[in-house]
Amino acid sequence: MQLPAFIRFILWSVTAVLGGGIMAAAGIYLYLSPKLPPLQELNDIQMQTPLMVYSRDNKLIGVFGEQKRIPILAEDIPEVVVNAFLAAEDDRFFEHSGVDYRGIARAVVQLASTGEIQGGGSTITMQVARNIYLHRGQTFTRKFSEILLSYQIEQQLSKDEIFQLYVNKIFLGKRAYGIQAAAEVYYGKPISELSLAQVAMIAGLPKGPSIFNPIVNPDRARIRRDWILGRMLELNYITQADYSEAIAQPVSAGIHDVVVDVHAPFVAEMARQFAEETYGPSYQSAGYRVYTTIDSTLQQVAQQSVINGLDEFDARKGYRGAESTLSQWSSDNPAPADWEPNAEVWSSRLADIREIGGKIPAAILSLESGIITLVTAAGEQIVLDYREDLSDFRRFISEDLRGNTPVSLAEVFAVGDVVRLNETRDAIVQIPDAQAALVSLSPNDGSVRALVGGYDYFLSKFNRAQKAIRQPGSSFKPLIYSAALESGMTAATMINDSPVVIADAGGENIWRPTNDGGRFSGPIRLREALYRSRNMVSIRLVQQMGINPTRSFISRFGFERRNLPAYVSIALGSYGTTPMKMAESYAVLANGGYHVQPFVIDRVEDRTGRKVFEHPRVVVCDIQCERDRLQAQAKEDEFEALSLSDFETEAENDAPAYAPRVLDERANFILDSILKDVIQRGTGRRARVLERPDIGGKTGTTNGPVDAWFSGYQRHVATTVWVGYDSTQKLGSREYGGSAALPIWIDYMRAALADEPIYERPIPDGVVSVRINPENGLRTRDSQNSVQEYFRRELLPEYEPDAIQDLYQSDEVQQSRDLEDIF
């Protein structure tokens, strides 16, 4: 029986349409398939993970990257997070094969009716395809490409792997890529600690990271969040009670910066620069992890020591006044009688002013009879009572002069002034104008354990510890003395501390250096000359040794010889250098005479944990190490005799290199004993508070004074501190290395040496101790008028003539008789 003509027409039409559709689809496939990107490396897709910087004890120091991303594994994703994203984006994700045909149909209808694709039909798998391989344009070509890629992805990856890719790659606004980064950015905690309402808020972001952003559009973001919560309830992912509790929650999102474990921004920037120079443009996105040599505990102590030391220095100079004002009124344009400050408005304006050195900004709301009321950026109102003492606000006039104590607060402040509060919020303080740097390293291998490049990185990013070229002054003298001791002089060698006049070759320029205070001591032993920091003696040492031999010797400590000045002022530290270099040179004195190169970057790992860089291991070989090395050498000689020298063990391959000796151990021992005298009886006496007989060091103060230094050490820690202005501004005539820099050094070393036992440096072979006459440096048999001194055995002085000993004894007898006459 033949079908009616119209039915046959309909069947043929349907068949034609279906056939045409199949042929069109096949044609599109054949056209697009060669143009699709390959999926062979899908499992190895590398996410743009930021550079992470860590301390030596694995504490986070810094994060660098355009994209904030913290990868998370599928098994670590909470179930509530999975359900929230399914409800928001693709509730049939675990059922379909990568494509939602009903959604596709909706997109086709939208295109036919409006001429545009408004969205819909993009499954999670399709979003993965688009985010990884394709552009985001709304075209049929892109849509079909998504479909084809989605099928391929579903064939190659499991559903859990696809979902893991999705939640790690998806952009969620505010530079956050992936759910873990978004949780940290918006809520300051990991995704596992978020509430249901917070999870739903993040799940609403893929559809519109800007439109539904809780920071930019909190009202629209809440509507989107509540819709997702409703979908979760509808799909039985949550209970009615869960839904009711979550929907009642306010929008609690805010911008949260990355929280580091250790505040070491100068170190973090050094690591960033190293990564950029080593790995090129991809360094911020390739997932490198840089491990530094920094000790997290000592770094925190170093930073606080610098802050405290500069605060104390600055307080001696006087108060410079408010930073700025929020008030539109002034003395020329006074406020109306009925005007009152708006605390809420001022509080919001303070939010743009960064906390510096732990000191928060605050605006003055009122001044009444010694009582001052302030408001902070957090809206907190603080009342301070200054009725009894206003001496903190004596005006800065010059580096040596402060004004009188003000009679009232109105002499110093006005309503609307922006000032700083200390960390405990109980006093008005100010940010110092002066700067400081601290470098502390291990003399055993050169690893830097703490580094502070300034008062606050966000006040000034210039790393003074590494880059500030300043004259070290007298802290350079131990290097001059080390050359003298190695060249054949002794700690008892007598040098004349008397005026020196130095003229240039033409005689036109004359230099007349002097000692601090302008006094001279005449003939003086090297030991006393160094711990009393006599300038004339250092100059005469250089003159006797020769400038060029002196330069060559000092270059052993890590200085470039060509950069060392070829004139006698090198004796007084006229050479510009960095705190890092000074710490490097003092490490030689600490470890017994070996040069170790400072380094901050210990190793670098890639995203898989593979080590891609490791700093070469160079260590000091001390006396015990030397014995072990000689024993090992003897065994190696035995192997060579047995023709077994070609065999190398893994331990030998991994053995560190040994640091080169640059200073004779006997000369180093004697110089170390002198630098301990600097602490016990010289310019570093303030450090006796540490009660450590095993520390040595030297102050340094340049003309002006402009720079203040203290470099010192214990056997296992070498630390340098510099204080000064970034300009050539003077510190003040009463400021020295011992008053400005040494207190910072003491605060830091107190912590650095807390667990270090007292170190007794062994006396090297060839060093002897004998009694000498301190007046002439000669050996003496007189036990009452003598002092003990160390000498290299071959440099022992002669005994003084008996006549001289009798003279000193007769003087002593006469002095005793004079005392008897007095009393």
Write a brief structural summary.
The protein is an alpha+beta fold. Helices cover 37% and strands 15% of the residues.
Structure overview:
- By secondary structure, this protein is an alpha+beta fold.
- It has 5 domains: 42-247, Biosynthetic peptidoglycan transglycosylase-like (Penicillin binding protein transpeptidase fold, Orthogonal Bundle), CATH 1.10.3810; 320-327 and 344-429, Nucleic acid-binding proteins (OB fold (Dihydrolipoamide Acetyltransferase, E2P)); 438-597 and 662-752, 3-Layer(aba) Sandwich (Beta-lactamase), CATH 3.40.710; 601-658, no CATH class; 767-822, no CATH class.
- Helix content is 37%, strand content 15%.
- The chain has 24 helices and 28 strands.
- The strands form 9 sheets. Strands 6, 7, 8, 9, 12 and 13 form a 6-stranded antiparallel sheet that branches. A 5-stranded mixed sheet has the order 2-1-5-20-21, with helices on one face.
- Strand 14 (435-441) and strand 15 (448-452) form a beta hairpin.
- Helix 4 packs across helix 5 (140-156) and helix 15 (477-486) packs across helix 17.
- The relative contact order is 0.08.
- The model is unreliable at 24-36, 644-652 and 810-823 (pLDDT under 50).
- One of its GO terms (cellular component) is outer membrane-bounded periplasmic space.
- Residues 438-745 form the Penicillin-binding protein transpeptidase domain.
- Residues 319-433 form the Penicillin-binding protein OB-like domain.
- It is a single-pass type II membrane protein.
- Pathway: Glycan biosynthesis; Cell wall biogenesis; peptidoglycan biosynthesis.
